[in-house]
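Explain this protein:
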Amino acid sequence: MEMQNLPVYAIVFLCGALVLYLFQKLISAIDKSERKYPNTMDPKIIHHMVDNYRINHLDAINKTLGLDDAHSVSFDLKTLKKFITDIEYQTKKRNSSIGIAALGIRFYYAAYPKEGEWENMANEKAIGKDYAQKHTLIMIPTLKKKINQGSNLDYDFNPLDETTFIIKERENDRPVTLMAMSSDAGDAQSRQVMAQNHGQLIPPAEAAVEIY
């Protein structure tokens, strides 16, 4: 009897293998399509937007603070890829149900301390005082959450601290928000907030490498 069912099993197996093969080909085709058509911008628009910043915001900052502030920040691809991979890995390590579609990165505008306050940078020995007061970017992971029937919102969170994955209501009927990043969690690692900074600033780096 079992011998008679072998052809049926073989057909089912082959059908399953065919479906899996076609699915993988479809995913591969989507990936190739995305690689074939990368995101682009009109160079004229880029020039216009960069000039708007330099003529208005940057000029006002330099006049107000009396400095030559940075007008661009660059990160090497290896650093960016590692940061993105770490967000995915550390998040799934603590909650495997969270998919990549729920994750993101927020870019905070920031500025380095004054030279007289450089002791605050004691743990960032790679950054010299020539960066003092200059503009920079800090990247913080975000997690998409929906409150009741509202729209999805991207909340700052710490992939190293699972308590920040939860959204709870504040006291006195205040708006629902992401829990604060815990500073009293059990292990030392979870007291660190996952973030990325220290891109190359221009200035102090040489501006000759810029197109815009």
Q: What stands out?
A: Residues 147 and 202 are 41 Å apart (CA to CA). Confidence is low (pLDDT under 50) at residues 169-190. Strands lie at 72-74, 103-111, 135-146, 152-156, 167-169, 176-178, 200-202. The chain has three domains: 1-39, 41-70, 71-207.
